[in-house]
Amino acid sequence: MSSVSDVGVPDNVEHKASLRLSKALLLVLKLRIFVALFVVIAYFSLTVNNFLTTSNMLIMAQHITVIGILAVGMTLVILTGGIDLSVGSTVGLSGMVAGFLLMQGISIGDYTIFFNVPEVILLTCLIGALIGYINGSLITYLNVAPFIATLGMLYVVRGAALLMNDGGTYSQLRGHEALGNTGFSLLGNGSFLGIGIPVWILAILALITWLVSLRTPFGRYVYAIGGNEHAAVFSGLRVRKIKLWVYVFSGFCAALVGLVVTSQLQTGHPMTGDTYELRAIAAVVLGGTALAGGRGSVIGSVIGACVISILNDGMVMSGVSNFWQMVIMGLVIIVAVVIDQLQQRLQKKVMVTT
After folding, report:
1. pTM metric for this prediction
2. Which residue windows are transmembrane per the record (predicted)?
3. Structural domain boundaries in the chain
4. pLDDT in tens, 231-287
């Protein structure tokens, strides 16, 4: 007659094996962004000629910085459980504002005030921050849902960009030496120590934001609000103020992207940044930030921006039509969310069984 302990051994072995398998799968899911980056680079390296050439890498780096800067700002917003759909429109308006300040200036009576490049950058970033402030105010003080508030601002800001020059563009933004406003192209096309200035901007911005999110009370409060906003309120956190500053930062990042893109193209176009918000959200979700908030990292979002940008450039070089690109990008977002939900369920299972 077998003992109770003998009967329980097989079940215990199966339980341990299942637990090891679950932990291994959970580790793979946590590292999915690195797996995705490796797969995308490997695939296009084998299927697209000259994909890893220096010239193409430089072009991809420019595209990565654009989505990466937006993703940095979007990460903090999503960590609080919010969303910012207006960043793409803010990119377009920022480019138009920069073009207006450089080419036309501000007329006061018989005088016209022109601004040098640092002043143009400062004023444009302030306008982006103001848009973020309006978004944050609508959400925190008027209790408008983030999706609705930022969706409305998407149309308002895009309309403002189109109205600035009756739907036209500001081209050849080289400035005039007599006015002291030359050198705008250096922001998007210049380099330092052989590395493009936009790459430096992304690296510095991501590093500072990463340190703030992990090493400061403000960063911990952002995670706390996303984890449980009601508990954060009862804990005495200034939830409204924190969320307001998060949206201000997102608007600032969008304005910075508008300046970089306009500088690269030397043209301010009102439709610049169209659908950029979707790419930024895809990068953030793919990088492991939960749409419900409270979990994620800035570094993951930057790597997610690398995946999204390289995927997009690879599809263009492969001759994939714009229609299929939209389909694939949508599928990427859906799969990223599904995998994130799977990771959460698996993590809960592992925690319960250990």
Report:
1. 0.88
2. 24-46, 58-79, 85-106, 113-134, 140-163, 184-212, 244-262, 323-342
3. 18-353
4. 988 888 899 999 999 999 999 999 999 999 999 988 889 999 988 998 899 899 888
CA–CA dist 254, 27 (Å, integer): 33
Average pLDDT value over all residues in the chain: 87
Q: Which of 34-48, 89-103, 124-138, 248-262 has the lowest average pLDDT?
A: 34-48
- Phi, psi for residue 347 in degrees, rounded to 5: -65, -40
CB atoms within 10 A of CB 237: 18
Encoded amino acid at 246, one letter = V
